[in-house]
Amino acid sequence: MSGSAEPRSRPAGPILLRSGIVVTQDPTLRVLPTGDVLIEDGRIAAVAPSLATDGAEIVDCAGHFVLPGLVNAHMHTWQTALRSVAADWTLLEYFRHVHAGLATVFTPDDIRIATLAGALNQLDHGVTTLVDWAHNNPTPQHTDAGVEALKESGIRAAFFHGSPKPDPKPGEPHFSEVPHPRSEIERLRRGPLADRDALVTLGMAVLGPHYSTLEVSAHDFALARELGLVASMHQGGGEARTPGGWEALMARGLVGPHINIVHGNNLSDAQLRAFVDLGVTFSITPENEMAQGHGHPITGRLRALGAAPSIGVDLESAISGDMFTVARMALASQRALDNAAERARSGGIPATSTVPAREALDWITTRGAAMLGMSDRIGSLTPGKQADIAVMSPGALAMWPVHDPVATLVMQGSGARVRDVLVGGTFRKRDGKLLGPDVAAVRRKLAASGERILGRLDVPSVSRHVAAQ
Known about the structure:
There is one protein chain. By secondary structure, this protein is α/β, with parallel strands linked by helices. It has 2 domains: 107 residues, Urease, subunit C, domain 1, CATH 2.30.40.10; 300 residues, TIM Barrel. Helices cover 34% and strands 20% of the residues. It has 15 helices and 17 strands. The longest helix is centred in the last third of the chain and has 24 residues.
């Protein structure tokens, strides 16, 4: 488990996923009730009702869903060893206990095991692309440990380099006054994340005007644009550090398609409209936003502007890592808001659902790919794209019968039913078992890490006893 090299294994030859219920997310191919997917050289070579094998390895997918690997657009993977600890915390408690407390005692080894376990869990649940919003990097060693773990897992990932947020010591500036470190971003671009076509690539997790001064935000936005990187930032949670900051940044011409806003619950309609017009992308984390007090997810407000969000898990310290769950949360919460608005307007129930289920699958596939600027590589089962694919069993009864494949995936789907996962045409999970690192060893190290960290707050844990079973 200590190896840091990115897995380079490739299939020995073509692979044919045969006779599956193929949900392509491609606007032309759409859904094949029974279809084949041919994989060659790590890419999708063809999708059709029936394909010749030509010596390909046959994988029987009869009665199973074949779909694009999911895109988790926002997760703090370094918190995996803290699972459930923040389940009852509001956002203010989270800031106090995690950023100003627990985060400060993480070693590089803690970052490594949490990131590895979190990435493996995402693969286990059908996620092939993870946006790892890594904002606990007090040293380059912490950063490198996270990058190495992502590479070891075999997942496709965007490592969004962030910065810690501890309470300042006497004589130190507040974190909101510290520009993102150019030297560290350039080091990563020259070294472990130099290859923009590799499985693990680089982005920036910056503070933004809600959490930093105007000049820090201007510096960070300009740096990301100069280097051709996505700059992602949290927006919301308490009062803004720089009121009017967004308008000032737009006036300087620093806001555009390289900007990704996470949450955004407190943005005005005028701000949202301006951002959509400028090509800004949005990533929401609906379950955690509603639980911790961010406010209602902005799904419907984006839809009204002709846009849509990508979706992320956010915090496994608070919720589960299942992307089907958070997609349903986004769908249900927006339908609830729309239903309540109609009741207030007319006293009745809407004539039909305001948001179709198919949109929720877009949010966790094609919209995530678009946020990363990777729509030409991932997000759909389109010939020529990377073979990032999940195969899901319908179970004995849970997803059967299948009347509408897309609606069935969204409303009855679960990462726990994922049988196979391929990333770039390489199996990372097969026949229900993860391939690669020793999962039992990962469990033991993750439990030990979590117990050590939580000991600083005297939080009891039974992880060691459960992991040993």
